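Need a sequence for this fold. Nothing fancy.
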C-alpha cells in the first residue's frame, strides 16, 4: 500500500530504499532519507502520515545517534511535533522519547534473546540501559534483579516510568549517572550477567564490566565489526574481544545482531569470565 502511494513521487529504486529506511515506533515514524531525496522529504512525510493510520507524527532523522546521552536530531515532516510515544514489545509497555533518549526498535530480537537467557535469582548489570527495555523484559519474564544504569537523566526518568507501567516478576533498579563511577562505588562483583550495549565504546568500558561481574559470570560484549563476508563477522568479533580482554574468558557464542552499514555489523560475543 505504501509503495503504491509513493509510486507517483519516487522511482522504484528510490521507493525500495525508503521503505527499508523507516521505523514505526508507536504513533511515530522516523525516516532516514538519502541526500538525493531530501527535496521530496515533505511529500514523503505527508504520504507516510496519510497511509499509516495509527501514526500521528513523521520525523526525518537529521543526524546519527551521537554524544554521551545517545540522542539524535529529528526534523518534523508531518503531523504533531511530539517525540514521546508508547511502544509495545513482547507483552511489555514502554514510554519512549525518540529524540531525547536512546531507543531502537531494531533490537527486539536481541532483547528477547537476552530475556530468555536470564535465570531465576540472577543479578544483571545493564550498563547502558536507555529507557530500560532490556532490563524490564528480563524482569518481566524471570524473578531476577537488574541494575539499570544510564548517564542520560531523561532515559533514567523514562526507565522509572516504564518499571511502573509493567507487572514484573523480578526487580529493576534504575540508577542515573556515570556507569564507571556507579559500578566502582556500588556494584563491584554484584553481577551474574553484564550487558554492554554500547558497541562503539565497549573496549573503553570493558574493565568496568569485568569489575561488576562475579567470577564465573557472563558478559555480553557488543561491538561494531567490518567484515567483507557476513559469515566472518562473528568470528572477527570473538578475535577482537580476546585481543582486548585482560581476564581469562571462555567464549560461549557469538552472532550478528544487525547490519549497521555496508560490510559493517553490530555483533555480540557471550563470554564467561574467570578472575
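Here you go.
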Amino acid at each position: 500500500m505504501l509503495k503504491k502511494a509513493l509510486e507517483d513521487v519516487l522511482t522504484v529504486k528510490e521507493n525500495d530504499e525508503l521503505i527499508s529506511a523507516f521505523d514505526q515506533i508507536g504513533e511515530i515514524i522516523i525516516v532516514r532519507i538519502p541526500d538525493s531525496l531530501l527535496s521530496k522529504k515533505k511529500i514523503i512525510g505527508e504520504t507516510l502520515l496519510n497511509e499509516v493510520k495509527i501514526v500521528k507524527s513523521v520525523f526525518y532523522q537529521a543526524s546519527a545517534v551521537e554524544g554521551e546521552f545517545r540522542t539524535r536530531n529529528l526534523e518534523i515532516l508531518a503531523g504533531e511535533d511530539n517525540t514521546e510515544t508508547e511502544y509495545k514489545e513482547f507483552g511489555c509497555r514502554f514510554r519512549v522519547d525518540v529524540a531525547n533518549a536512546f531507543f531502537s526498535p531494531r533490537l527486539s530480537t536481541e532483547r528477547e534473546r537476552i530475556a530468555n537467557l536470564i535465570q531465576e535469582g540472577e543479578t544483571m548489570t545493564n550498563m547502558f540501559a536507555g529507557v530500560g527495555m532490556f532490563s524490564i523484559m528480563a524482569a518481566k519474564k524471570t524473578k531476577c534483579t537488574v541494575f539499570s544504569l544510564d548517564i542520560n537523566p531523561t532515559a533514567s526518568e523514562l526507565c522509572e516510568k516504564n518499571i511502573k507501567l509493567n507487572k514484573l516478576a523480578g526487580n529493576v533498579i534504575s540508577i542515573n549517572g556515570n556507569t564507571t563511577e556507579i559500578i566502582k562505588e556500588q556494584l563491584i562483583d554484584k553481577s551474574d550477567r553484564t550487558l554492554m550495549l554500547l558497541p562503539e565504546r565497549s573496549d573503553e568500558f570493558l574493565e568496568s564490566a569485568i569489575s561488576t561481574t562475579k567470577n564465573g559470570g557472563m558478559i555480553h560484549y557488543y561491538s561494531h565489526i567490518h567484515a567483507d563476508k557476513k559469515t566472518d563477522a562473528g568470528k572477527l568479533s570473538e578475535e577482537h574481544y580476546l585481543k582486548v580482554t585482560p581476564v581469562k574468558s571462555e567464549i560461549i557464542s557469538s552472532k550478528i545482531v544487525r547490519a549497521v552499514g555496508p560490510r559493517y555489523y553490530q555483533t555480540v560475543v557471550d563470554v564467561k569470565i574467570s578472575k
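For context: The chain has two domains: 2-82, 102-274.
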